[in-house]
Amino acid sequence: MMIMKTRITSKIACLTTSVLLLGGIASARVAKPFPKEGIWRGEFSVSESKVPFNFQLKGKTPKTAILTLINGSRRDDFHVERLGDDSIYVKMNTYDAALVAKIETDGTLSGEYRSLVPGFRGNSLPFVAEHGKSYRFVEPGKDVAPKHNITGKWEIKTYTKEAVPASIALLKQNGNKLTGVIMTVVGDTRELEGTVQGDEFELSGFTGPSPFIVKGKINDDNSITGEQGFGIYKNLKFDGQRNEKAELPDPYKLTFLKEGYSKLDFTFPDLSGKNVSLSDDKYKGKVVIIETIGTWCPNCTDQTVFLSPWFKKNQKRGVEAIAIGFEQKDDLEYAKYTLGKLKEKYGITYDILFGGIADKKVVTEKLPALNKFIAFPTTIIIDRKGNVREIYTGYTGTVTGKYFNDYEAKFNKVLDELIAEPVPEKFASTETLKSK
């Protein structure tokens, strides 16, 4: 009897062990890979060029994972989602594009930056990424001593078939490390990060919209020559001269009202489909800020980041704002999605309207009082009488330093002055008139 019990006990133990082993094997089979936390280095393949970018991943599951793009001092966060058993999907927030990547058996990522715009989904850039590498262009220990220091302001001339105003590069070099921004009449590149090696330099930037790269040579006369690459869009050759006095055309004078016009008028649908006009009672007697934007436009996003909290703080002073979105598809349902995401992401409490397709000629046609439309975004400020008092073309972000500070100071000064003006009697409420 004792022998039989021992045999039974032994069989149960073996069976239990087998079940545990099988369970372990089953668990191993269903375990889904996920990218490692930490620093990563990626490379886009653009034609024959490589465009490097860096990011950090925090979180071990799709519920907690955040991918942070790194560009100098700038950080942009994006949620990571699982796509199937071995892939991830990172939507570029309000930009209708995504990083889609497979997690390879060695832990690297391979995939593509993909446009999600209906009708444009063939636009993509392949990329690979490797965990644990924090450098951007040159591996540690392989730097070449720089022959020049290109810190300063550079006047950049770009060569295209069409006439293009000069742009300005603000660069800061510390040893081999290089950071900077390029400003144009339509906006800036956001912060770029790169390196100087011998007499050559490189800068790249990827913040969600299509990646950007600059490659150039520092000549013996201290001029620079090179090429700018705009991801899936275009490449432009340039040369530059250091010029601390260089300035862009005055952004307050590029866009203006045609002769005979003092006011602006329009009617566009809001995100519920209701038509909204500047002549509506809601705006009468108010100072009104008009923004022409697009969710595809990084400078428009930066301007929204500036305006949304400003408006919440100042609306009760007698201010209204309207963002007119011109999107990559001329479809209200599509615009409800893209502009709705913008509204949600940045907590926008002012009105958002849909103007149509993102085309400067279309904007000029739909806002015929303007001499021409040059840039997304363009800011139009209207006084309490309904007269256009100021138009600012483009946007200069915080990375431009003094240029942003000057913009912010003038914006507040103009708005303070217009808000202080009296409300015209014909727009004043009965209660306001009685209190006078």
UniProtKB/TrEMBL annotation:
Q: Name one Pfam family in it.
A: AhpC-TSA
Task: Report the protein name in the record.
Answer: Thioredoxin domain-containing protein
Gene3D superfamilies registered for this protein in UniProt: Glutaredoxin
**PANTHER family given for it?**
PROTEIN DIPZ (PTHR42852:SF13), THIOL:DISULFIDE INTERCHANGE PROTEIN DSBE (PTHR42852)
Keyword terms of this UniProt record: Signal
| Superkingdom of origin | Bacteria
Which SUPFAM superfamilies does this chain map to?
Thioredoxin-like
Name the source organism. Pedobacter jeongneungensis
Segment forming the signal sequence: 1-28
Residue stretches making up the Thioredoxin domain: 257-420
